[in-house]
Amino acid sequence: MVTTKKTTTEKKPAAKTVRKPKAVKEVVAEKVAEVQAEKPHTEKVVASTAIGQINLVDGRYAWAVGRRKTSVANVRLFKGKGKSTVNKKDILVYFGNKALVEQAFKPLQLAGLENQVYVYVNMNGGGINSQSQALAHGIATALAKHNIEFRKVLKQNGLLTRDSRMKERKKPGLKRARRGPQWAKR
């Protein structure tokens, strides 16, 4: 009978490297640097090549509808210097927040028409943030309809796309859209 001899190889334990604990600030700074190197944050704002080219006769207006969630904004865009109003109130009084007004007037800023036009808006539905976004959509649509040169800039900044996210409808047999009734064993 032939017997084979088993050979065993001994594995040496790997040398442990001792790391010096880093301060929390250093670790956070490294992570932030990694994220910024991977995806630098760039905003899509592109300046318009056709600044101030709107041809509206006095008394005439560009009209469009802007929507977001359940908010609907009927926008009339007039040439000239006047007070922008929403539901017959001054726009700053209506929104009560300068950030919401800036959000609503972003299409005019990109087109370079901030001080050349004013808007008259009939608004209903939704909350004030949703209404501000609906107003921005309406202004952008009115500008794009009236002057095709603005369309490219507004499209690149996502102002012509209707944000279609809405609350889901309630389903039968459920409490809300997806929330089922509570179940108790006893």
What is this structure, in a nutshell?
The protein has helices at 24-38, 91-95, 98-104, 106-111, 128-146, 151-156; strands at 61-68, 71-79, 85-86, 89-90, 117-124. It is α+β, with helices and mostly antiparallel strands and 186 residues long.
List the helices and strands and how they pair.
Elements: H1 24-38, E1 61-68, E2 71-79, E3 85-86, E4 89-90, H2 91-95, H3 98-104, H4 106-111, E5 117-124, H5 128-146, H6 151-156
Parallel strand pairs: 3-5
Antiparallel strand pairs: 1-2, 2-5, 3-4
Helix pairs in contact: 3-5
Structure in words:
The chain has a domain at 61-156: Ribosomal Protein S5, domain 2. The protein has helices spanning 24-38, 91-95, 98-104, 106-111, 128-146, 151-156, and strands at residues 61-68, 71-79, 85-86, 89-90, 117-124. With 186 residues, the chain is an alpha+beta fold. The termini are far apart.
Keywords, please?
186 residues, Ribosomal Protein S5, domain 2, 6 helices
Structural class: alpha+beta
Mean pLDDT across residues = 84
Roughly how many Å apart are the termini?
Answer: 73 Å
**Percent of residues in helical segments?**
25-40%
Number of helices: 6
How can the largest sheet be summarized?
Answer: 5 strands, mixed
- Strand residue percentage: 15-25%
What letter string, H or E per element, gives the SSE order?
HEEEEHHHEHH
Radius of gyration over alpha carbons?
29 Å
Shape: elongated
Assembly state: single chain
The CATH class of the domain at 61-156 is Alpha Beta
Q: Which CATH architecture of the domain at 61-156 is right?
A: 2-Layer Sandwich
Strand order, main sheet: write it out.
1-2-5-3-4
Using the coordinates shown, work out and report the CATH topology of the domain at 61-156.
Answer: Ribosomal Protein S5, domain 2
**How many β-strand stretches?**
5
Low-confidence region ranges: none
